[in-house]
Every structure is written in structure tokens, then in C-alpha cells.
Amino acid sequence: MSRKSELEKLKGEIERLKKELKRRKKYGLVWEEKPEEVVEMCKEKLPVLKEVKNKEIITDKNKPANLLIEGDNYHALSVLNYTHAKKVDVIYIDPPYNTGNKDFIFNDRYVDREDAYRHSKWLAFMEKRLKLAKNLLKDTGVIFISIDDNEVAQLKSLMDDKNRGMFGENNFESLICWRRRTNQPNDKAKMIAKVAEFILVYAKNSNALKEKKAFNTIPLGETRVESYSNPDNDHRGPWSTTPWRASRGQGGTKYKIITPTGKVYDEVWLGMKETFKRLLKDKRIIFPNSGNGKPRKKVFLRERQREGQSAINFWFGREYGDNLTASSELNDLFGGERMFDNPKPVNLMKMILRIKTNKNSVILDFMAGTGTTGQAVLELNKEDGGNRKFILCTNNENNNGSGYKIAEDVCYPRIKKVIGGYKNLKGDKVAGLDDNLKYFRTDFVDYDEPTDKNKIKLTEQATEMLCIKEETFEKVINQKNFKVFKNTNHYTGIIFDQAAISAFKKTIKDIKGKFSVYVFSLGDETFDDEFKDIKQKVQLSPIPEAILRVYRRIFK
């Protein structure tokens, strides 16, 4: 090779390296990727759901069903990416904190503090699940993640990393500090005792969240209520005050105000002069004796309670609960038995729901543990007449050697007791919060390649997934080649053999209502021509292709 050719080759390599350096991230987390067995198995087996019929709870057929999914949350989230894409309003999770004290399992082994890849394994575990979870949120959706100081820095950096498909720092909403214990720890070995944890909050799209004001004010906290008094016996009740003078950056109107003592203030005020005069006449303006005597506006407790207040990022007090409260709640349900370490209190979950849900919201907790989120949803529905629905996902592992399986022995019985009623530790009967629950387990269909045989297998096993997607659980027609399910105002038809289309159409001819119809197809055919005579009645989708599209994206 000539010297000139060598030089050209060297220049080309330098240019390639420059481009590579530009492509690489300049800032952020870097960790060693660790393969995870539950993820790798999806290259040959596709997750589906199977209903556990004997665990179904139905108290009112006209109400929607909540879901409890037993299995690995990666597999559950994969299924939900088909059934619930962009349908979820709020996600809350309480992931393993990775303390090194047998709280985090990776590939069926506890990750201890001496593991050199402890943080890498945890980040790999979280990234895969958070990516799937993000797809489930509506554009106005929000995720709340409990965490402590072992991984809070890493989690914040991960969530900020849009290059990895995460939420991005522009969608960061808050880092809430929750005081999880009220007593002072007697741990003299530590310089600073730990009494608080964190809740990291990200929006799917902060702009959409704020433009649509898809969040709520909350009732005044205990300390805020205590700050109101009525020293002048105002007939409108207790009040507090806010400055009438505008702060820097607030804007306002400049004019002169003369106080009762004759002081003159020529400043920028929050409202127009006419507004000030009206408030003064209505005895809503005071001139305090203490301080500089500048006017302040009365704010009445009853009005502020009606308006509510923005949530703050320090949560402490009875309205938020603590670890002791959470343990007591669980003990009350299970007769004093210690079923689970460090559950979360119901009030903590209800505060999250009050901030971000409306009466018809869908709430997901894919690390559900004891099921606190489910109980909080049911209680809040009872309080305000809401129809919120929860989806809980949890494995069925032995809880840290306690002998109790998390799904079967803790989470499900808790929800069952809350729905049906129970006796507490005092022997008092606690009334049930009538609602519905469907219980599913993750299962798998062998699918190492897209053969016709494998497509048929997946279609045959997809019935429960389709019912979940359409929220139609009542079976009304059960033929060999097609089935029909319904809820109060909608039907789902599943046709397993194209030759049965004509028979299916005859069967549903006199049924009033809209149909979502899924027709087996080896390709992506929707059979529009076959249904053109009833096209106003049906919405068509091919299966299993609609499912496979989602799985190809996830498991690529």
C-alpha cells in the first residue's frame, strides 16, 4: 500500500472516530448491561394471561373489574403493552431499594451488598420495566416511584435519560420527601438517622399535563388549617392573610395606598385600585400593627378549603401516614400476623390518587406487594362515588423467607377482605367496599419463529388478553370457531376460523350494540369486504398480528 493510501485510510479512521465520539453521550449513567432470564425467555416464548376463575370476585355485574396479575412484572407489562397502551392515568411503584439486605432478586438470586455489579443489575432491571411502563401512560399520565437513598441518584439519572427512551429531565415534576417514621431512631452508630424516603415524580408529557390541568388541588393539610384563626370574630369564620403588595416578577398595578395611621405607600400592588377599594369595603383588607403596616388580604378558611391547595414536596403527618401506620393496617387485616416487611400506608397512596386521578382513572401498580394501592383505590371510590380501576401486578415469591407467598397469601387476600369485609383486631366488623376483581396468571406460548402453527397457538391462547383489552368478561356465545363476550354496553367477538365469519354474522345479527371483532389471519388481513354490510356495527382487527406487532417492538 502506498504512503498516500495509508494516509487516506488514516484520515478516514480519524473521521469515523470523530463521528463516534459525537454520537456517544457526553453525560449520564453508564453501566454494564446484565442479561435477565425473564427477558431472554421472551425470544422463544410469548407471554399471555390465564384467568384463575376461582379467585374472581364479583359484587356488581354493572361495575368494571379491577385486575390482579400474578407473575413476573416484565411479562405482565409486556401483555399490558397490548391491552392498555396509553390507557393508564397513574402508575405507582415501590421497587426493591437494593439495600443489599435480601430485598432485590436478579435471575433468581439475591443481590447482596458485596456484588460488584449491584447497581448495574438494578439499573438494567429498572430500565426494562420503566420503558414498558411509559408506553402505558396517557400523554397526561404521571408515574410515582418510591425509593430511598441507596438508588435515588441513579434512578433520577436513569429517568432523565431520554436517549434510553426514558422520561427525560424536562418531564421531571418533583422529588417528594416522605417522613416514613415519626419517632427518633436510636442508632448512635450513624451520624444522621434515616427517617425519610423519597417519591420521584415524572410526567409522560409535562406540557400536556399542565395545558390540560390534568391534576388536582388537595385538601388543606393539618398544619395549614391550624394557621387560621378569627381574632376579630369575623362572621365569615377563621382567616389568614396574604400580602397585597406584589412581589418581584408577579406583575401588578402601581398606585398610592394611605393606611389608617396616615402612612403612604406608592408601590406595585397585586390588583387594580378599584379591586382594592372593593376588598377594603368588604373588610377583606387589614393593616397589621406589627411589621410595616402594609395592607394584607384576608383569606378565609372555608374558601380555601373549597379551593384546596397545591401539593407540596414534603409529606409528613396523619394525612400521609408512616411505616407504623402501614404495619398496623396490615396487622388489622390479618389478625396481627406479620405478613410483609415495610408496607406502604393507605393514606400515602390516597394522597397520590387525590393529586392525579379523576373518578374514572386507571391506576397501575406493577410492583404491588401487599396491595396497598388497590385498597386505596377502593377506599377513595367509596368516599367520592368514583369508578377508578386498578391493575396490580405482583409475583408469588416467598416473601423474604417469611413463608407467605406475596400474591396468593398477602395481596389477593387483602383485596378480598377489603371488598368483602372483615373483622379487625378488636373484633369489630369492617364493612366491605363492594367491587369486582379478576385474577390472572402470566403464561406462555412457544413462539420461536413466525410459523403458521405458532400463530394458531398464540391466537388460541389470546382470549383473555382480548377480553382485558376490551373490558368484556361475560361470555354470551361459546361456539367452537368463535366466541362473544360483553360488558354493559359493548361486545367482543373472536373468530378463530375465517370460514366461520358467515355463521358469526348470522349469530350477532339481532344483537344491538357495537362489536370489536378479532379475526384470525395468517397475515394482516382485516376482512373488511366480508363485513361491509355491517361495517357501522363492527370494528375489525386481525389476530395474532396486532399482538405480534407489539411484541416485535418490545422483544426486538
Automatic annotation (TrEMBL):
Q: Which InterPro entries match?
A: DNA_methylase_N4/N6, DNA_methylase_N6_adenine_CS, N4/N6-MTase_EcoPI_Mod-like, SAM-dependent_MTases_sf
Q: Its GO biological process terms?
A: methylation
According to the record, the residues making up region (Disordered) are 226-247
Domain DNA methylase N-4/N-6, chain residue ranges per copy:
88-393
Superkingdom of origin organism:
Bacteria
Q: Which GO terms describe its molecular function?
A: DNA binding; N-methyltransferase activity
Q: Which UniProt keywords apply?
A: Methyltransferase, S-adenosyl-L-methionine, Transferase
Short name of one Pfam family:
N6_N4_Mtase
Question: What is the similarity comment for this entry?
Answer: Belongs to the N(4)/N(6)-methyltransferase family.
Which protein, by its recorded name, is this? DNA methylase N-4/N-6 domain-containing protein
